Amino acid sequence: MKKGLIIIPAFLLMFIAFGLSSAQAHVFFQCPCLDDPAATGVVKAHGNIECSVGGQSIACKHMTAGDGFATTADGSETYIFGFHDVTNLYPPNGVYATKDEADAIVSTDGLLAAETSAPTINVQENQDFYLTLSIVPMVIRPDLFDPHTVHFHGYPNASAIFDGEPMSSISTNQGASLTYYYNLTGRPGTYMYHCHVEASEHMQMGMLGNLFVRAADDTTAYNTADTGFDVEYPIQVISFDPKFHQADQDIQPLPFAEMLDVYPMFNGRGYPDTINPNDLPPPQQKIDGRASIETISPTQSSQKVPSRITATAGQTILLRLSSLATVDIYTITAGGLPLQIVGKDARIYKGQSNPAGTPLFQTVNSVNIGGGESFDLLIDTTGIAPGTYFLYTSNLNELANNLQEFGGMMTEIVIAP
Length: 417
Ligand SMILES: [Cu+2]
Known about the structure:
Strand 3 (56-71) and strand 4 (77-85) form a beta hairpin. The chain has a single domain (32-416), classed as Immunoglobulin-like, CATH 2.60.40. The chain is built from six helices and 22 strands. The chain is mostly beta strands. Helix content is 13%, strand content 34%. It has helices spanning 2-24, 32-35, 99-109, 199-204, 242-249, 291-294, and strands at residues 39-45, 48-53, 56-71, 77-85, 118-124, 128-135, 151-153, 177-183, 189-194, 208-214, 231-240, 263-266, 309-312, 316-323, 330-333, 339-344, 347-348, 362-364, 366-369, 374-380, 387-393, 410-416. It is globular and about 55 Å long. The structure holds copper (II) ion. The site of copper (II) ion has 7 residues, from loops.
């Protein structure tokens, strides 16, 4: 009797589980702006679909996760895992008229389309944010059935299930979609996001992106006059070890203990690609001896985040600097331009227990940044001679693209008259 009571619920649970898995095993973009009849003012803005439902501001984004290639500044191509933005497929003004049509095409649009840096997530304090992640197959490694997640590094989640650390929350398998929900109440700042599945591997492979929560007063970093700015730029420090990437392309084993980053980059590009304001051209991948693979060369750019910084003399620049490098700590300098630290790790740079207290802002020539850290840095260009300055790592051995010239982790700050 007792045994029977246990068996019946277990059988029902299995039935429910199979029912759920088949219902989720297709692309499904969950977005109140497109699903809720009460949604008003639906627009594309900040890379999201945004609207209002009952007075609540909503933002939605849809990404795929899979594999692809990135072009490094020495002309090499590197195998990557990554995220790909498909939000633009949806109405309003998307390629497809209806949400169902777009849902149907997402899985093919996401093939071999991994981006590095990942699509920038730009949301605002007090929004409700719905982020759908759909996992597509690995084209180059069809034998890998890795799940993926999104982890908002440093952000307090609405629920632990959306944390993305797969052992304490959940991850999503290939062919399935999961919509993460974030209640962005009162925590503006510069964050970052990454996949948390086998994190050392998937992060080294490129599943890394800029994430920032704009303050309610989005002319400031932290809703205070002394954190005001005119222009803002997200700059993410990442770096690749090409031997590790090659091993992941070539059926492993992965050299974790020997990980050596020799492509130091801003936003997934080495200098001089950092100053190209456009998407880099799609990689022209050719795989020796695997002719059948050549017919599925990537057709979409995998590097869409430039890092050239421009301002007019007199303006204040906000650099949203973060690092998701998996090996090294980097020293970043602007070559003599004063950097004022107004935020650290997505918090205003003063005592949290004394928010009205004296700012602890510091003006420095350089900052040291390790993986998982972020800085909000203001550059006040008042009185600075117009011209071209550089933002770069002063670890001079890292000013290279795999020991080649041009200078890896470097970009330009152009101050116009
Ligand atoms: Cu992953």
